[in-house]
Design brief:
This protein is an alpha+beta fold and 599 residues long. It contains 14 helices and 29 strands. The protein starts with a helix and ends with a helix.
């Protein structure tokens, strides 16, 4: 009888909760004035179209996580290198128990029970698959299919959604709703010509920035050997067994073709011929091996990150999901953008590579600020666990790569269409190392090198002095109103970014963009981590506090070039840090020695 009474009481409480949520007045949670440029409303979303709603729960302890990150990443702090375990980092991401219960009760009021839900390891994400018709009822909104006028892509989104007012403190945001980001790869320059293997149209040698000899042919074709020569890493041998690892990420159906990889190794890194890598599939990510399915971005990342660091163990994270949607109502499924799935997976993993490179991103303003903050905090958690994260800075200078004021396309998406520089995300996150691009030897800034200042994230203290010094050199009023001088400034560093030779679909050709920069710089850091680990130390973890305070002495300052865009000539490279090439390009031997002096 007592058990029956408790059951009835529980049922009454549940029903009362259901009624209270449905009776509670709705209040707008997030909205945008209009879709970003080029996205056009196409048609109402089919009512039976399935959405994978991802509900982000607040992380009340995240300020403590950030405090730990600064301490373990600051070379002058006594806790430097004292990285958090997975469990320790997770504890700082976990929502308050009341929040978990409240959101579960709200979902149950719509017939979505625990057995229908997926929870992240830290319980800070809840995922539920629901038809559009139910999502519209839950969020008091209307979904539409939007078409991208330039690419023809379709996505299902809304420009505003609401929640019962009592839920607002328990939900940070819900997607897919107002986010139109495409998270494209940053391989913007494809000089596709068939190149005879072993072609050497340039002979002789150039003196590199470290005083060492660099083949003159590297001014025409970038190979792994060129990068090792240029960045003073020739002869360093990494270990296959000391525990050091490197990882790269792959999205949007990009596949690393193993035939291309081996063809590249046989020609440019013979020692690596026949070597393999670990594939981790996230959200049913694939690595299709048909020649036609080979991904230029994925091939580039793997051939250079895995070739430069051989025999360091390497991992490919392949994540399914992409914004495009087939508007045919017979197609029942759509996907979120894939980035959050990767982040959720790696945060739940016990063992991670010490260095991970990512070459994808999008305009910061296409990403809701709530989402950007959430992703950035997840990246902070990885840094607190000792992972060095590198991201490409983007390929459009300060915005669109167009210096012509009459044809530039840099406009705010707040309904005002104000001309402004367009920062890139996640490059603008202060908890990652963002890599810009250079060209030629001696090196100069690549004109496409993404750089600028975030409109979401304030300038972190580790770069205060360097950025202030740069801004003080600008003529008064320079680009006033076009950028946020108090924002997180990027890139942090740079490396070569054009005329990289790659094997792609069975042929050799050239590719360029900061997609080439991120895996290259990550490889140099993986080699530095290798030296530290072989010396009984830990990897460098989040790099920026070290780079801006000590590590800059191991970088070659780039002082020429600029990054045009948004109807301007962009920023200039100069002595010291600049928003084109950051602090400069690496000198491996010096970085290694500086890193070995750390605890």
């Amino acid at each position: 009888m007592r058990s029956l009474s408790l059951l009835l009481l529980s049922l009454v409480v549940t029903l009362a909760g259901a009624a209270s949520y449905k009776d509670s007045p709705f209040k707008v949670k997030e909205s945008i004035v209009a879709p970003p440029r080029a996205w056009v409303e196409h048609a109402p979303a089919p009512s039976n179209h399935i959405l994978e709603l991802r509900i982000a729960l607040p992380q009340p302890y995240s300020p403590l996580l950030e405090k730990h990150l600064w301490e373990v990443s600051n070379p002058s702090h006594k806790r430097y290198g004292d990285y958090l375990s997975k469990q320790e980092a997770e504890a700082f991401l976990t929502p308050h128990p009341d929040t978990i219960d409240t959101v579960s009760e709200w979902l149950a009021s719509y017939g979505i029970y625990e057995e229908h839900l997926l929870h992240s390891s830290a319980q800070d994400w809840v995922t539920a698959r629901v038809p559009v018709s139910l999502a519209e009822e839950m969020l008091d909104t209307k979904y539409h299919v939007y078409r991208h006028s330039e690419t023809g892509e379709h996505i299902v989104r809304t420009t505003s959604y609401s929640l019962p007012e009592v839920l607002h403190d328990h939900v940070q945001f819900i997607q897919p709703t107002t986010m139109f980001a495409r998270f494209k790869a940053f391989s913007s320059i494809l000089h596709w010509t068939t190149v005879p293997v072993g072609d050497a149209s340039t002979s002789g040698a150039i003196t590199g920035p470290a005083g060492n000899q660099v083949d003159a042919s590297c001014n025409q074709t970038i190979t792994p050997t060129c990068l090792l020569q240029l960045y003073n890493a020739v002869g360093y041998e990494t270990s296959a067994t000391n525990g050091n690892q490197i990882g790269i990420t792959s999205y949007l159906g990009q596949n690393v073709n193993n035939h291309d990889l081996q063809q590249f190794f046989e020609t440019y890194v013979p020692a690596a011929s026949g070597s393999n890598y670990t594939i981790i599939s996230i959200n049913d990510g694939q690595n299709n091996q048909s020649i036609a399915a080979a991904g230029l971005e994925a091939d580039l990342d793997a051939q250079y990150a895995f070739g430069l660091t051989y025999p360091t163990p390497r991992t490919l994270y392949t994540t399914a999901g992409s914004p495009p949607f087939d508007p045919d109502p017979r197609v029942p499924n759509n996907t979120n953008e894939p980035y959050s799935y990767w982040l959720e997976y790696v945060l739940s993993a016990e063992n991670l590579p010490q260095t991970i490179s990512t070459s994808y991103g999008d305009d910061e303003q296409t990403v809701p600020e709530s989402y950007a903050n959430r992703v950035c905090m997840g990246l902070a958690a990885l840094g607190a666990r000792g992972v060095s994260l590198t991201f490409s800075s983007g390929d459009y200078g300060v915005g669109d790569g167009d210096s012509n004021p009459e044809t530039q396309l840099c406009f705010s998406n707040d309904g005002l269409n104000t001309t402004m520089f367009i920062p890139t995300f996640p490059a603008s996150c202060p908890f990652v190392t963002t890599v810009g691009g250079t060209i030629y030897i001696p090196e100069t800034a690549a004109s496409f090198s993404g750089g600028g200042f975030s409109n979401y994230f304030s300038r972190p203290s580790y770069q205060d002095q360097a950025v202030s010094d740069y801004l003080s050199k600008l003529a008064p009023g320079t680009y006033e109103g076009l950028y946020n001088p108090d924002g997180r400034a990027y890139p942090d560093v740079s490396v070569q970014s054009d005329w990289f030779i790659v094997a792609y679909q069975g042929q050799f050709g050239y590719v360029g963009g900061t997609s080439a920069s991120s895996p290259t710089f990550a490889s140099i850091i993986a080699m530095v981590n290798d030296a530290r680990i072989s010396a009984g130390k830990k990897g460098l973890g989040f790099l920026n506090p070290w780079l801006y305070s000590v590590g800059y002495a191991g970088l070659n300052d780039i002082t020429t070039g600029h990054n045009p865009g948004c109807g301007t000539e962009g920023f200039n490279a100069s002595i010291g840090w600049d928003p084109v090439t950051g602090l400069g390009t690496p000198n491996f031997e010096t970085l290694k020695e500086l890193a070995l002096q750390l605890p």
